[in-house]
Specification:
By secondary structure, the protein is α+β, with helices and mostly antiparallel strands. A hairpin with a 3-residue loop joins β10 and β11. It is globular and about 75 Å long. It starts with 20 loop residues before the first strand and ends with a strand.
């Protein structure tokens, strides 16, 4: 990743936890390569030279249920620069993929529901359960009850002292660790008990939900050289496996944690089932596919091009299990409501709702998904689907593909505007094959409904530079990246906040924004949005209320209202989520379930087992 985690276009790689909203830009394949304006706080982790790895003797004893023993091999095209996610380079995705074997924190993201679930704590703190309190002085206190059975791999109980030591390590001014949100914890406000921990934040924030994952064992790490002692080895584990060996350039091996405190919810058996897992590093995608085809590796998560997916799916009759899921990167169409749209289209009529509805009905999303993603996923009817599917209203379902309806709206727009022709100029990145294909598909769709259509594609450096900053487009397309959790979901609505035009805000659409004046760079200086009305005012009001509360009931109501406002006004049109895929030999390894969130395909590796024992 270049220029990681700030609100400018970046190349999206990965992060460990996080509030991540990233606009996806320059990829040269269907589903890889993203750039973006982003708001995020990566989290981190670390290893131990004092913790002896527990290398369990291989066992093949069958318990009543699933068998114990054996090994699984996972292939990846990257090798970690460090095993310490708090260290420089620790935000690399492969660090997290391997780290799922031995890290633990407050929460996990469930691969089935894509919701936060408690890990080291008995329940996730909320206002409703008393774990979160907004105090009279405007501060907010968060409390955790640590599971009684949670212990480190060396048998030491996980305690509030570990939470406190993790906080102190993150806040250490000598350590180059991202301190976002942690630095808002009121100094000295934390209290640690044998199985409790609490702290107070200076003000209410949803960012608390992604803090303290993972946790550092104080007894093993205190007094060590944190950035140097934990790069090539890992501290005592709180996960299903413990670090065993890193053969540079080849593999990392982890082995069973005999003191792991979790059991299989289905069978009641002690986890994990496997004796060990090997992470092999194979740089080329083609080599990974070939190794999987030859059964030299058991589990892979390759770049999700449609060619790769179809190659893997061809192995399903032989026993391969291929999961193709909608990932966190979602593409959307949008309209520009600022003055600078006229630089691309002097005849832009984006302020006309009938025109925008016509466009929404003219877009054949099913054809787009079929042509670009080989029909592997369903089109999006809501942006909320990406963040919290259970909260989605499906608000864009009202805009079915219907050329006849679209033509009716076009004629209504012409009548309102007093014009004979309506023109649209489409802009996106020219060095992304999927977006180029999209621009070509639009030619016939717009012609069919009587809209004069023109493509003006740009190199990603230009599009995600001054074009995005200054609003130099008429009708555009790019992607955002989000993750499960209320913080990310509320954050995506912040990006459409009428009170936040660039350069200080990220409402690049300039829907409902006031005049921007007095900026050093002329491109930012523009008149007020072409749409400022009761709906934009209401959107800003609800958004402000959502950012002032941590009550989930209030947030759910606000999310529903804002989703409907965006859809009813056709500010954006969600298209589809980019694919993520993973494959496993199901006749060899059972229990595998891909997770499209940042916790990825190793999130539940403690439940993997050898089917062939």
């Amino acid at each position: 990743m270049t220029r990681l985690w700030h609100s400018r276009p970046v190349v999206f790689g990965a992060l460990l936890l996080a509030f991540a909203l990233v606009a996806a830009a320059c990829g040269d394949s269907t589903d890889t390569g993203t750039d973006a304006p982003t708001t995020a706080a990566p989290t981190t982790e670390a290893p131990s030279t004092t913790a002896a790895a527990t290398t369990a003797a291989p066992t093949t004893t069958e318990a009543p249920g699933k068998p114990y023993g054996g090994e699984a091999i996972v292939a990846d095209d990257q090798e970690p620069p460090t095993l310490n996610s708090f260290a420089p380079g620790g935000d690399n995705f492969i660090v997290s993929i391997i780290g799922e074997s031995y890290w633990a924190g407050v929460y996990k993201i469930d691969g089935f529901t894509l919701e936060y679930v408690p890990e080291l704590v008995t329940e996730l703190p909320t206002v409703a359960n008393g774990g979160v309190s907004v105090n009279a002085d405007g501060t907010m206190t968060v409390r955790y009850q640590i599971r009684d059975d949670a212990v480190w791999s060396d048998g030491v109980p996980i305690s509030g002292d570990d939470f406190q030591y993790t906080l102190e390590t993150i806040l250490d001014p000598e350590l180059p660790i991202n301190k976002i949100t942690y630095e808002d914890i009121v100094p000295g406000s934390w209290e640690a008990g044998p199985k409790t921990f609490e702290y107070t934040l200076a003000q209410p924030t949803l960012q608390y939900e992604s803090l303290f994952s993972p946790i550092i064992p104080k007894h093993a790490v205190e007094g060590s050289d944190f950035l140097n002692d934990w790069n090539d080895a890992m501290w005592p584990s709180a996960g299903p496996f413990v670090f065993d060996q890193w053969q540079k350039g080849e593999f990392v091996r982890v082995v069973r944690n005999d003191n792991y405190w979790k059991t299989d919810e289905e069978t009641g058996q002690q986890l994990p089932y496997l004796d060990s897992v090997i992470f092999r590093f194979i740089p080329e995608t083609e080599s990974i596919i070939n190794a999987f085809r030859a059964r030299e590796v058991d589990i892979i998560q390759p770049p999700p091009s449609t060619d790769v997916i179809e190659t893997l799916q061809a192995l399903e009759p032989e026993g391969a299990v291929v999961e193709v899921l909608s990932g966190p990167v979602w593409e959307h169409l949008n309209f520009q409501f600022g003055d600078n749209r006229f630089t691309k289209n002097p005849d832009s009529v984006n302020d006309n709702l009938n025109y925008r509805k016509a466009v929404a009905h003219a877009i054949d999303k099913d054809l787009i998904v079929d042509e670009i993603l080989a029909g592997q996923v369903e089109p999006l009817d809501s942006l909320v689907d990406v963040f919290a599917p259970t909260l989605s209203q499906g608000s864009w379902k009202q805009y079915d593909y219907n050329p006849e309806t679209a033509r009716t709206y076009v004629e209504a727009a012409k009548t309102e505007l007093g014009v004979d022709t309506i023109k649209t100029v489409f802009s996106t990145t020219s060095n992304n094959d999927a977006r180029v294909k999209l621009s070509e598909l639009f030619v016939e769709m717009f012609a069919d409904v009587g809209i004069e259509y023109t493509n003006q594609l740009e190199d990603s450096q230009i599009f995600f530079g001054e074009t995005l900053d200054f609003g130099n487009w008429d009708f555009g397309e790019w992607a955002w990246v989000g993750n499960p959790g209320f913080s990310d979901l509320v954050g995506i609505f912040d990006l459409m906040d009428p009170e936040s035009p660039p350069p200080d805000g990220q409402n690049y659409y300039r829907w409902g924004t006031a005049e921007v004046a007095g900026q050093d760079v002329d491109g930012f200086n523009q008149g007020p949005s072409s749409i400022i009305d009761a709906d934009t005012a209401r959107f800003a009001e609800v958004r402000d209320a959502m950012n002032a509360t941590v009550d989930q009931d209030e947030l759910i109501a606000g999310i529903a209202e804002l989703e409907n406002l965006l859809a009813d006004n056709v500010v954006i049109i969600p298209l589809y989520a980019r694919l993520v895929t993973a494959a496993a030999w199901g006749d060899e390894v059972g229990g595998f379930k891909h997770n499209p969130s940042q916790q990825s395909h190793t999130w539940n590796m403690g439940t993997w087992y050898r089917v062939d024992l």
